[in-house]
Design goal:
The protein is of the alpha/beta class. Helix content is 31%, strand content 30%. The strands form 3 sheets. The chain has a 5-stranded mixed sheet with strand order 3-4-6-8-9.
Length: 136
């Protein structure tokens, strides 16, 4: 596995390939949001989840409102530890008056959000553009 960070700034695309043990993700700055796209089909291992946390948490500006969209369009399976990570991300974002949106969640994963009632905690959207447009 490798990590792919795509930073879009002033119309320039830059790619950075990092540690081959890290999960694949893409980070883009689109309009007013930071969009993190998870590119792994399965996010199950503790090391992968820790690597995601190590990548996503620094994107959340301390003391500055962060507008973050996490795109699950490629994810088919995830462990409950990912839900814990999402809660930690949410807490950090809301402490700085930021906004978090989740999008493109596959139907089976969506059921997990409903069973755990996390669909009431997170703002979940069908597609990425809807999620970005919902940010104020």
């Amino acid at each position: 596995m490798s990590i792919l960070l795509v930073l879009v700034d002033f119309g320039q695309n830059r790619e950075l390939v990092m540690d081959p043990l890290s999960p694949k993700i893409a980070v883009q700055y689109i309009e007013k949001a930071i969009v993190v796209t998870l590119n792994e089909e399965k996010i199950l291992e503790e090391m992968e989840i820790q690597a995601l946390e190590d990548i996503i948490m620094p994107l959340i500006s301390a003391g500055k409102p962060t507008k973050l969209v996490i795109d699950f369009s490629n994810v088919k399976f995830l462990s409950s530890a990912v839900l814990g990570l999402l809660i930690r991300i949410s807490k950090k974002i809301y402490e700085s008056n930021g906004q978090l949106r989740l999008c493109c969640i596959e139907r089976n994963i969506s059921k997990i959000f409903k069973i755990t009632r996390l669909d009431k905690v997170f703002d979940i959207f069908e597609d990425q553009s809807e999620a970005i447009d919902s940010l104020i």
